[in-house]
Amino acid sequence: MRNRFVKRWKREEGVTLIELLAVLSLMGIILGVISTTIFFGFRSYDQVAVENRIREEGDVLMSSIITELYAFAPDRVYALPNGTGFEMYHVDELGTQQAGDKVTIVISPQGQLEIQKANVLNAENPPVDPYQATRISNGSIVSGLSSITVEGETAGGFDYYTTGLINIKLALRLGSDSGQSQLQLESRFGF
């Protein structure tokens, strides 16, 4: 029995060139399929991660607008030109508009959402950046595709609204020039 194993080990048969080429080509095909699948999986994962990040950024922007709208509870709302935003004011008992008590929500030309409060801007020691949540890191709001408009009837022929809807359309872009992702969000808020 031992001699049989010894004889097999001593045989000097090798692999032919055709067998070697067949094994190498099969390994190449299998490795190609595996690497393509892995590459596609990583690329899909990155794309989904970027889209989730854009959606999170959009949710933060929308919640910043609605929070400011409902926390301020405006008596008058003015639409800004070209659908770039709106201004909110309080009025006193006599119906006089309080210029020092206003909030402006606007899409800036730099592609960011700006929430400007008159009492914060006029304060002696204003915070450095009270609205950091409205800044999109490594991205921007696409100005031509985004708008914030006011819908409703103006009060008594004046140019302000006392009730109505605020229509928000945001086109968000995230990433560098070569790898940009874009998402459009729409929402409506009543006031």
TrEMBL record:
<keyword id="KW-0178">Competence</keyword>
<keyword id="KW-0472">Membrane</keyword>
<feature type="transmembrane region" description="Helical">
    <location>
        <begin position="20"/>
        <end position="42"/>
    </location>
</feature>
<protein>
    <recommendedName>
        <fullName>Prepilin-type N-terminal cleavage/methylation domain-containing protein</fullName>
    </recommendedName>
</protein>
<keyword id="KW-0812">Transmembrane</keyword>
<keyword id="KW-1133">Transmembrane helix</keyword>
<dbReference type="Pfam" id="PF07963">
    <property type="entry name" value="N_methyl"/>
</dbReference>
<dbReference type="InterPro" id="IPR012902">
    <property type="entry name" value="N_methyl_site"/>
</dbReference>
